[in-house]
Amino acid sequence: MADTIELLEAIGSDASLRYAQVDELKAVLEQTQASVELTEAVVQGDGASLRKELKLQETTQVQQTHAPGHEGDDDGECDPPKPERHPPERSPSQPPANTSH
């Protein structure tokens, strides 16, 4: 049986495996004698069996809307001021532009 971590690394580093269809990836996993849990995770699209094999605890994903300590920053009050646009100043050595043609 191939090492699950090594297979996950191989899948992650090889674009042809990472973006392969389920059937293709399943065939590769069977050829490499991947664990039943890894193959199940790929086929079912659920990592529960893989987490069990790797002895990982179930994690709860919490959507974070604001970075800690930055509540209320979305009102733009901390945005840097935008520079004002002024026409370029002419230097004293430049004659005024001739606008009468």
Short description:
The protein is built from five helices and no strands. By secondary structure, it is mostly helical.
Q: Name the beta content range.
A: under 5%
Oligomer: single chain
Q: Report the average pLDDT across residues.
A: 77
Distance between termini? Answer: 87 Å
So how many helices? 5
Quick one: overall form? elongated
Order of helices and strands: HHHHH
Q: Care to count the β-strands?
A: 0
Could you say which structural class the secondary elements and strand pairing correspond to? mainly alpha
Low-confidence stretches: none
What level of helicity do the residues show? 25-40%
Tell me the Rg in angstroms: 30 Å
Strand count, sense and barrel status of the largest sheet are: none
Short descriptors:
101 residues, mainly alpha, 39% helix
How would you explain this protein's 3D organization?
The chain has 101 residues and is mainly alpha-helical. It is 39% helix and 0% strand. It has helices spanning 4-13, 15-18, 22-31, 36-44, 48-53. Helix 3 runs antiparallel to helix 4 (36-44). The longest helix has 10 residues, at 4-13. It is elongated and about 85 Å long. The model has no long low-confidence stretch (mean pLDDT 77).
Helix-strand layout with pairing:
Elements: H1 4-13, H2 15-18, H3 22-31, H4 36-44, H5 48-53
